[in-house]
Amino acid sequence: MSLPPGFLDELRSRASLSQVVGRKVIWDTRKSNQGKGDMWAPCPFHQEKSASFHVDDRKGFYYCFGCHAKGDAITFVRETENLGFMEAVELLAREVGMPMPARDPKAQEKSDRRGELADVMEQAVQFFRLQLKTSGATAARAYLERRSLREAAQERWEIGFAPDGWQGLWDHLRGKGVREDLIVGAGLAKASSKGGKPYDTFRNRIMFPIRDPRGRCIAFGGRALDPDDNAKYLNSPETELFDKGRSLYNHGPARTAAGKGQPLIVAEGYMDVIALDSGGFQASVAPLGTAITENQLQMLWRIAPEPIIALDGDAAGLRAAMRLIDLALPLLEAGKSLRFVILPEGQDPDDLIRARGPSAMQTLLDGAVPMVRLLWQRETEGKVFDSPERKAMLDKALQDKVDLIRDRSIRDHYGRELKSLSWQLFKSRPAGSGKRPWSPGRKPDVAPLAGTKSSLLVAADVDVQDHLRVAVILATVLSTPAIIAEVETDIELLPCKDPTHAKLRDLILRNPEATAEDLMQAIEREIGADTLEKLHALRHVALSPCVRKPGDVELARITLSEEFAKLKARRGLTAEIAEAEEDLTGLADEALTWRLSQAAQAYNRAERSEHEDKAEYDMGENGARINRQERDAFASLLDKIMHSRPKR
């Protein structure tokens, strides 16, 4: 339908936005100024306690500083009532007394027919309700009694019964003068393939009316009483009123309850929703016989920013959760996500609440896990990653899922979270906890020579200098956590013989996006309040420019680059010397001498760099003395090697 020029502007000017919004929110009288049309309230589109939702009545626009929802009166009605554009326009026009322009004859005819179908559906609701009280519904009433659905609950949910006959509802509606095309068009009857009169869609079933957000009955769900029936649950076929992929059971009441602060729970079926509602969880909905669709997901996000998906603890429930993850990943945005509750195996919300009460359900909801954790579980559970190829396969599978996310910020956060989980799964044993890594041509491990045991070189990874270098690195990262992403791999490989250093390293890697304050609080909570004080008390750390200038990313980048280079050079020299001493049990050769000379050159370069920045870092006399001892030991070893070579 086309609207004449100026109609919408006139509608917006007549409709007071604050009055339209005021039906859904409670204004914050401290922040609002009604005289100026400047109104504030908690946002009706996401759960919050502060008043971040702003309405400018004079301009006719609203904006939420939390979830960034914005629009005018028409947009607000569409979003809160889940209406189409023209339906929202008609609703507002009626409220302000504006006559709608003449409709296109075909559009008017379609609207009139939908109204007739809705009337037929209401007559069917009343028929099924009456049938539940008849003698033919004894088995149905017994079933409801076993499911603890007393008469009050039956009234609340308008539960009825479809009798076990071919034309019970058909004959009733025809007797009321309802046209045949309307009964079939409403999905209440099906045409006979044998040429007879149409027969009822629902027979010998407990009936659950399905209503749209405006309260109109648009379909039915029927639960079979015959255990041999092919379909335990049967929904109405799709009609002009009913699109099952765009409908939710208990949509309207759940939206109202969610607007009052209750968490939105998505269950699997009608009985689950009814059980949740009876347990105090009124913001509960269910899809209608199919997996959640993209349209339904968007509808859920219009009700609440983070619905909780509560699925049965069986294989089918888990499969449904995994399908939903793949559907949701491309649609994620800031403020739009999902959390998951997987119920105990063999139980649904109805079973759990009846057996253990609402508190058991609340405990599960409080522990609902974010979607990224369920994605991780799906890709890793029951799998063994004992080879580089399998680890690479996991990396690829995770990256493929992350790449589905269109929102760049969300994609980056997912990547970091999954990388952190991978690190926790694959993190290597602490340095020195096992044998040296295998390398081509390496001889089997042998006991070190007696002279090696007393050498400072045996403890090269844990000597004073390396201990201080690790301390400087950790302190630098903690004072400037923005650098973590650049040096994450180097931090993972950081040799931390000191248990406190190892805990600090692991904590940093588990929190790659934390601020300096967040890290400080985590350290105090997990390691001890005096940990940072002891770290900064080390002279090397106290004099580090990075610690004195926290947050300077460029300075941190330069410092870490130098410290990692020095550690790498020292480790290289140490490894060659250790292998050389083992090799001295046999005869030295040219290759051994060459390897040591190369390691010595790398070490000397690091030493020169150290002397160049000595004024800034002040290694001290003790550090210099250790360096001389190592150089003396190295020279002694080379001399020993040369004398061990056979004379030609």
Automatic annotation (TrEMBL):
Taxon lineage = Bacteria, Pseudomonadati, Pseudomonadota, Alphaproteobacteria, Rhodobacterales
As for what it does, the entry says: RNA polymerase that catalyzes the synthesis of short RNA molecules used as primers for DNA polymerase during DNA replication.
Give the enzyme's EC designation: 2.7.7.101
User: Which residue numbers delimit the CHC2-type Zn fingers?
Assistant: 43-67
- From what organism does this protein derive? Sedimentitalea arenosa
Instruction: Name the chemical reaction catalysed here.
Output: ssDNA + n NTP = ssDNA/pppN(pN)n-1 hybrid + (n-1) diphosphate
Name the source's superkingdom: Bacteria
Q: Name one Pfam family in it.
A: DNAG_N
What protein name does the entry list?
DNA primase
Checking SUPFAM superfamilies in the record gives:
DNA primase core, Zinc beta-ribbon
